[in-house]
Input
Amino acid sequence: MDALSLLPWFLSIACAVGVVVLFFYAPIFGEKLSSLTGVSAEKTGTYVGVKSSSRRVWVIYNPVKSEKVPTFKKDCFEAARAAGFEDIYFVETLPDSPGDTQAHEAIASGVSRIIAAGGDGTVRLVAGVIAESGEKVTFGILPLGTGNLYARNVGISTDDWEQNLKTAFGNHSSLVDIGWLRATEEVVDSSDSDVSLVSPLHTGEHPFLVISGLGFDSRMIADTNPELKKRIGWGAYVAAGIKNSFIPPVQVKVSVDEGKEVYDMSIRSLFVANSGKLPGGMNLVPDAQPDDGILDICVMDFKHGIIGWLAVFGQVVLQNLGLHLPPRKGRQGFIRFKQAENLDCLIPDGYQIQVDGDPIGRYRRVRIRVQPRAFALACPAPQ
Output
């Protein structure tokens, strides 16, 4: 069989895996959070404005994502002034300080609002610092990344800059949850040497706002070429997805809610969702809400490659039509769901772990928990 005769098979695999990857990880069309309440805010930073003891806001921004920094600062200053802020301060993220250090400094200075302008990595780190501080700091988002998954999932637009500014500096907010992941018993593997890993906060935990987990998704993320991602965006994930579409199952032991239930499983993916909408309003995780005080555990498995992927995709479509397939032996692919406040996972051989699309390394033990009503998120005004 020559190379040309194999081409249709490769194209079929690319299309199917591409659909699944984009459905799992492409920007999510979200809906506005319910129970919006008015909350005041405060500071921004290369220092601009009249110094004041209140109404202060910091803007922590990724300069790589902000192509026109002077215009970006001007727009933020005007939005802050229109919202009644008197003190605005801008501070850049750095390769070795991607947002958490800056957020700690902002909180120590006594601000009551912090805005993260960047991609999902910047957003989750700043949100994590605010959540763990326990301070009454409102968190705003100016989405500037490739995916902006969390922003879209909570109804923050990525293509209306003026509206984004009004939302980030506005007076509508809602209390939302955050997930925390702690990984121990690291497994060093030479094949991971080229993977850029993210570090936990000083508590040893990684915050996440959308999805964390292991299996196909973590392998795909770890294998995504950063340079290719810069050039073609989500296409880089598709390429990595094709590479990992036929990975063998992984053996895991999962303990839910401090051992109330224990499962030994062989799966392709195990991920935990704090929120999980798909493009077009579809739900990958039907019951996951960013403000419901609980996590949604999702187990995915499939057989026979492309047929299994299509079976998984079909289940997602059906569950959004209100149809739920009962468990049945012989099914080519499936997703199972369970809600919990926490879980502990043992992976005897170790596996790549990811948090909101950032790889953290290869570990044998993982503990994941939810922190309900962790911080006040600046949200779009109700219509």
